[in-house]
Design goal:
This protein has 250 residues and is of the alpha/beta class. The chain has 2 domains: 160 residues, HAD superfamily/HAD-like (Rossmann fold, 3-Layer(aba) Sandwich); 77 residues, Putative phosphatase, domain 2 (DNA polymerase, domain 1, Orthogonal Bundle). The chain is built from 9 helices and 6 strands. The protein has a 6-stranded parallel β-sheet with strand order 3-2-1-4-5-6. Strand 4, helix 8 and strand 5 form a beta-alpha-beta unit. The protein is globular, with a radius of gyration of 18 Å. The protein binds xylulose-1,5-bisphosphate and magnesium ion.
Length: 250
């Protein structure tokens, strides 16, 4: 297997459990601001997560779950307005420190940085949301830890399309076998795998645990910390938290 040249991270669900207590709450606040009686509870939100991208998710909700709503003629404009309000709420939630990084994320990022391994991000979320999460967890300036941040509408087709990983690989000047991708969802794994990435490490969460990860190299519940070992779906634990030495064995 090729040397590890870069680690490429998904954001939502992978770096932090942002969906239920971050994005979902922000969507609901934006709906309330607009005088809409739409409420996305945790279960409904899990179903809506089958579509990536917040604007795309609102349209999916109207198409499949709220078909009685008479949407304004200019649907794109209406959704864009709601989504801009949602992003403002999301950034405010991050500034309150509501969502910490998942176990082992900061440890592994720091180890990779110290070893001179390139870090990058490939996500469908809005770029402002990435900054808000990183700056409020890793601290000001932490955006610079990442050589490339592929986010949001920078590519027209969001995950599970490979476009965002293709974009990041192109910008890094690397090919799939030279990197390891970190994901939490089936859509994310499809995206990375179709971009030619062979080593994909999945850390699951409550929303993604039962998804199809057949194309992933390893599926565990978290990267782990000393005294808190990663666990596979069959209940077996790894011998140690995920670190660079372990990643070289993937
Ligand atoms: C994340 C998403 C995003 C966020 C919302 O998926 O699907 O849409 O839920 O972000 P992934 P925006 O982790 O696979 O990147 O509202 O900014 O789109
Ligand atoms: Mg994700």
């Amino acid at each position: 297997m090729a040397e590890i040249e870069a680690l490429v991270f998904d954001v939502d669900g992978t770096l932090a459990d942002t969906e239920r207590d971050g994005h979902r709450v922000a969507f609901n606040r934006a709906f309330a601001d607009a005088g809409l009686d739409w409420v996305w509870d945790a279960d409904l939100y899990g179903r809506l997560l089958s579509v990536t991208g917040g604007k795309e998710r609102i349209k999916y909700y109207l198409r499949e779950f709220n078909t009685d709503y008479a949407a304004p003629a200019d649907l794109d404009d209406f959704v864009a307005g709601l989504h801009a309000a949602k992003t403002r709420h999301y950034k405010a939630l991050m500034a309150e420190g509501r969502v910490p990084l998942r176990p082992g994320v900061e440890r592994l990022l720091r180890e990779a940085r110290a070893a001179g391994i390139t870090l990058a991000i490939a996500t469908t979320t809005t770029p402002d949301n990435v900054s808000a999460l990183l700056e409020n967890t890793l601290g000001p300036g932490s955006l610079d830890w990442f050589a490339e941040i592929g986010a949001g509408d920078i590519v027209p087709a969001k995950k599970p399309a490979p476009d965002i990983y293709d974009w990041v690989l192109r910008r890094l000047g690397l090919s799939g076998p030279q990197v390891i991708a970190f994901e939490d969802s089936g859509h994310g794994v499809s995206s990375a795998a179709d971009a030619g990435i062979e080593r994909i490490l999945v850390t699951t969460n409550g929303y993604t645990r039962d998804q199809d990860f057949s194309r992933a190299s390893l599926v565990i519940d978290q990267l782990g910390e000393p005294g808190r070992l990663p666990r596979r779906a069959d209940g077996a634990t790894l011998e140690a938290p995920v670190d660079l030495a372990f990643l070289r064995t993937l």
